[in-house]
C-alpha cells in the first residue's frame, strides 16, 4: 500500500521563500495604486415606477499596477444594506429586483481600497405606485355577537406598513406591521355592512398611501330581543318621598335564552341584576335624578336601553347664614337656616323643621323655626356650624359654615426700638399681644394725632419716627389700637424709656487755685459737663496724643489727682467728655508750678550768712589797711549787693 511521503525540510523552506516573494510583489503593486474617488449611479434612472428592476452601481476611480484589495458598502438613508469585497477594484453591482415604494430613499457608496476609504455623493431613488390591497373575510353571513376574521394583503409590497380597516366608509381598526399583510377579528352590529381596507408605506418622515381595496359585504343576523326599562310612577312629575320603582326586562323571542342576563344600573352603580328581569325600588330623593340603564347580555351581544328620570325636590337644601358676617368674641351671633323652595302641593313652609349644629353637636334640641341666637355669654363662638331641614321623613343638610370669631385687641405697648437722644430722630413701635388683624394703630402726642398705620400681616409692627427736644417730652406720647369699629380704642401707657441728653458746657478747673500750685503738694484736675450719664472723661496735656487718665462716671463731673506736683507738671491741660449722644472738649488751662516755701527760706538764710561773712571780712580789712571811713564805705557797698541778691532770689519764679 502506498503511503504519502512527508514533505522534506528543504521543500518547506522553498515554499516559505516563494510565499514571501509573492507577498512582497503584491505589496509593491499595492503601494503603486492611486485611488481618487467613488461614483454611485442608479440605473435606469433615479425615478422609476413600481416593478422596475433597478441597478445600484458603485464605481471606484483608481489607477493601479498589480493586485488590489477592495471592499464596497451600500447605504440607504444612512443605514447599511449591502457589503461586498471585489478583486482589483471592479464595479459593485447591487440589484433591486421589482423595485417597490419601500426602496425609495437616498443611496450612497463607500469604498475601501488598500486601507484608503472614500465615499460617493448621495443619489435619491424614487419609486412610484403601490399595489392595490385585497380584502377577504372568512364568512359573509354570521349572527350578532360572533366575530368575523378579516385579511388585508399587498403581497408585492415590503417595508413598514400601516393597514386600515373600514366599516361603511368609517375607520374601524388600524395596525402597523413589518409585513405585507395583516389579519384581525371584528365584531359588528346587526345588519348589512360594507368592508374595505387600505394601507400606507412608512417612508420617514412621510408615508405613501395606497388605493382602497375591494369592497366586501357581510350580513350580521340580529337577535330578536331588546331590553326594556320602565319607571313608576309614570309621567314627568316624581317628587321626593314618592316610592320609585324601576324595572329592567327583555322583549322578544326568549326560546333560546340560556346565556341571557340583564343589568340595571345608574352611572357606575350597579343597582340590580337578573336572568331575564331586574328590579330596583327606593324612596325617591333629588339626588336619584339621572339616567338609568337597562343592559342585556347574551354571549358576546350587549344591548342597552336608557331612561332619564327627573325627581322634583320636596324642599330645597337648607342654607345656613350668619349675622353679622364678622363677629368678635363675646358678641351676639344670629344663625338662620332656611330652605327657600318647597313643593307647595305636598307641604307648607311650616312643615319644614330645622336643627343647628356646632362641631357636630346639636345646639337646638328638638326642631325649631330656623333662627338661633348665640348669646354674648359664650366665650368661644368659633367653630364649624351646619344645619338640617326635616320634612316627611326626608332630611337634608346645609353646607358647613366655618365661623372664626375675631379676638378684640389688647392694650398696646409703646416702646422705643432705638436709642433716644434729645434732638435726634428715633423710632417707637406700637404692639398688642392679642387681637385679630387688621389692627389700626395711632400715635398721639398729648391729644394730637401724630400718625397712624394699619397692620395687616402677622409679626408686622406699627413703627413711628419721632424727635424730642427735651428729655421729658417722651411722657407726652401714647399709642392707640383698634380692630373693632363698634368699640372704643385701647390706649397704651405713656412712653417710658431712657433719654440721653447731649453733653454741653464742658469745663476744666484746678484745685488748689492756679496761683497756689506749688511743688510737693497735690493737684486735682476737675472736668465737669452738663448732660446724661454715663460719661467717659479723658484728661490730656497739650503735646501728648494719649490721655493722661480715663474714667467713666455716672456723675456729671470727675477728677484726676496728681500727687507731689513737680516743676515737670507745669503745662497746658484740657479734658474731653463722651456719652452716647456726643463728645465735647473743655477750654485749655495752663498750670505754672511754684517753688516750695522751704526752698525759699533756705535761699534767704544762705544769703544772710553770706552777708554776715562779707561784713566781717570788710571790718577786718578796714582795721588792717584803711581808715575807718573807707571801711564804712566798702561795708555799705557790700551790704547793698547782698540785699539786691536776696531780693532777686526771693522774687525769681521756679523753672
What does this protein structure show overall?
It comes from Salmo trutta (Brown trout). Residues 7-126, 227-310, 318-404, 506-592 form the Ig-like domain. Keywords: Disulfide bond, Glycoprotein, Membrane, Signal, Transmembrane, Transmembrane helix. The chain crosses the membrane at residues 601-620. Residues 1-31 form the signal peptide. It is a single chain. This protein is mainly beta and 655 residues long. It has six domains: 35-128, Immunoglobulin-like, CATH 2.60.40.10; 134-221, Immunoglobulin-like (Sandwich), CATH 2.60.40.10; 225-309, Immunoglobulin-like (Sandwich), CATH 2.60.40; 319-403, Immunoglobulin-like (Sandwich), CATH 2.60.40; 413-500, Immunoglobulins (Immunoglobulin-like); 504-591, Sandwich (Immunoglobulin-like), CATH 2.60.40. 11% of the residues lie in helices and 48% in strands. It contains three helices and 52 strands. Strands 2, 4, 5, 7, 8 and 9 form a six-stranded mixed β-sheet that branches. Strands 11, 13, 14, 16, 17 and 18 form a six-stranded mixed β-sheet that branches. A hairpin with a 2-residue loop joins β7 (105-113) and β8 (116-119). It starts with 8 loop residues before the first helix and ends with a helix.
Amino acid at each position: 500500500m502506498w503511503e504519502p511521503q512527508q514533505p522534506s525540510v528543504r521543500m518547506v523552506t522553498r515554499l516559505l521563500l516563494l510565499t514571501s516573494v509573492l507577498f512582497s510583489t503584491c505589496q509593491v503593486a499595492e503601494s503603486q495604486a492611486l485611488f481618487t474617488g467613488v461614483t454611485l449611479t442608479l440605473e435606469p434612472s433615479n425615478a422609476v415606477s413600481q416593478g422596475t428592476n433597478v441597478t445600484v452601481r458603485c464605481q471606484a476611480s483608481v489607477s493601479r499596477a498589480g493586485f488590489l484589495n477592495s471592499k464596497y458598502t451600500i447605504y440607504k438613508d444612512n443605514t447599511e444594506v449591502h457589503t461586498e469585497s471585489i478583486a482589483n477594484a471592479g464595479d459593485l453591482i447591487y440589484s433591486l429586483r421589482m423595485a417597490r415604494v419601500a426602496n425609495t430613499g437616498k443611496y450612497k457608496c463607500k469604498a475601501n481600497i488598500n486601507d484608503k476609504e472614500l465615499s460617493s455623493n448621495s443619489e435619491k431613488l424614487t419609486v412610484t405606485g403601490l399595489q392595490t390591497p385585497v380584502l377577504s373575510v372568512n364568512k359573509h353571513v354570521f349572527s350578532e355577537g360572533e366575530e368575523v376574521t378579516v385579511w388585508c394583503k399587498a403581497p408585492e409590497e415590503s417595508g413598514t406598513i400601516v393597514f386600515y380597516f373600514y366599516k361603511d366608509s368609517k375607520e374601524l381598526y388600524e395596525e402597523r406591521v413589518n409585513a405585507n399583510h395583516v389579519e384581525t377579528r371584528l365584531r359588528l352590529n346587526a345588519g348589512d355592512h360594507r368592508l374595505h381596507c387600505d394601507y400606507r408605506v412608512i417612508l420617514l418622515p412621510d408615508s405613501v398611501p395606497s388605493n382602497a381595496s375591494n369592497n366586501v359585504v357581510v350580513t350580521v343576523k340580529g337577535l330578536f330581543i331588546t331590553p326594556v326599562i320602565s319607571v313608576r310612577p309614570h309621567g314627568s312629575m316624581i317628587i321626593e318621598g314618592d316610592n320609585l320603582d324601576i324595572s329592567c326586562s327583555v322583549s322578544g323571542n326568549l326560546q333560546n335564552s340560556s346565556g341571557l342576563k340583564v343589568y340595571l344600573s345608574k352611572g357606575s352603580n350597579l343597582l340590580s341584576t337578573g336572568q331575564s328581569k331586574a328590579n330596583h325600588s327606593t324612596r325617591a330623593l333629588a339626588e336619584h335624578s339621572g339616567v338609568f340603564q337597562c343592559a342585556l347580555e347574551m354571549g358576546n351581544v350587549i344591548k342597552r336601553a336608557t331612561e332619564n328620570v327627573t325627581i322634583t325636590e320636596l324642599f330645597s337644601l337648607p342654607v345656613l347664614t350668619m349675622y353679622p358676617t364678622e363677629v368678635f368674641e363675646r358678641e351676639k351671633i344670629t344663625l338662620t337656616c332656611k330652605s327657600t323652595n318647597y313643593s307647595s302641593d305636598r307641604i307648607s313652609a311650616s312643615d319644614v323643621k330645622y336643627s343647628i349644629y356646632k362641631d357636630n353637636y346639636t345646639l337646638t334640641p328638638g326642631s325649631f323655626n330656623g333662627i338661633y341666637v348665640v348669646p354674648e355669654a359664650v366665650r368661644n363662638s368659633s367653630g364649624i356650624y351646619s344645619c338640617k331641614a326635616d320634612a316627611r321623613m326626608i332630611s337634608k343638610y346645609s353646607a358647613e359654615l366655618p365661623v372664626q370669631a375675631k379676638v378684640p385687641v389688647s392694650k398696646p405697648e409703646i416702646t422705643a426700638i432705638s436709642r433716644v437722644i434729645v434732638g435726634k430722630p428715633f423710632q417707637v413701635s406700637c404692639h398688642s399681644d392679642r387681637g385679630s388683624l387688621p389692627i389700626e394703630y395711632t400715635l398721639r402726642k398729648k391729644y394730637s394725632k401724630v400718625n397712624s398705620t394699619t397692620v395687616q400681616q402677622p409679626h408686622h409692627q406699627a413703627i413711628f419716627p419721632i424727635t424730642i427736644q427735651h428729655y421729658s417730652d417722651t411722657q407726652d406720647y401714647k399709642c392707640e389700637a383698634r380692630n373693632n369699629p363698634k368699640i372704643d380704642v385701647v390706649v397704651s401707657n405713656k412712653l417710658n424709656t431712657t433719654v440721653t441728653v447731649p453733653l454741653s458746657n464742658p469745663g476744666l478747673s484746678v484745685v488748689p487755685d492756679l496761683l497756689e500750685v506749688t511743688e510737693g503738694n497735690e493737684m486735682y484736675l476737675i472736668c465737669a459737663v452738663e448732660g446724661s450719664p454715663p460719661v467717659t472723661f479723658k484728661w490730656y496735656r497739650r503735646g501728648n496724643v494719649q490721655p493722661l487718665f480715663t474714667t467713666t462716671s455716672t456723675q456729671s463731673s470727675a477728677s484726676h489727682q496728681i500727687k507731689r506736683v513737680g516743676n515737670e507738671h507745669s503745662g497746658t491741660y484740657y479734658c474731653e467728655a463722651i456719652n452716647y449722644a456726643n463728645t465735647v472738649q473743655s477750654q485749655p488751662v495752663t498750670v505754672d508750678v511754684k517753688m516750695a516755701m522751704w526752698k525759699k527760706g533756705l535761699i534767704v538764710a544762705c544769703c544772710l550768712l553770706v552777708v554776715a561773712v562779707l561784713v566781717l571780712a570788710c571790718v577786718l580789712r578796714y582795721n588792717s589797711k584803711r581808715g575807718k571811713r573807707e571801711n564804712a564805705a566798702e561795708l555799705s557797698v557790700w551790704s547793698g549787693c547782698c540785699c539786691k541778691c536776696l531780693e532777686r532770689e526771693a522774687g525769681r519764679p521756679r523753672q
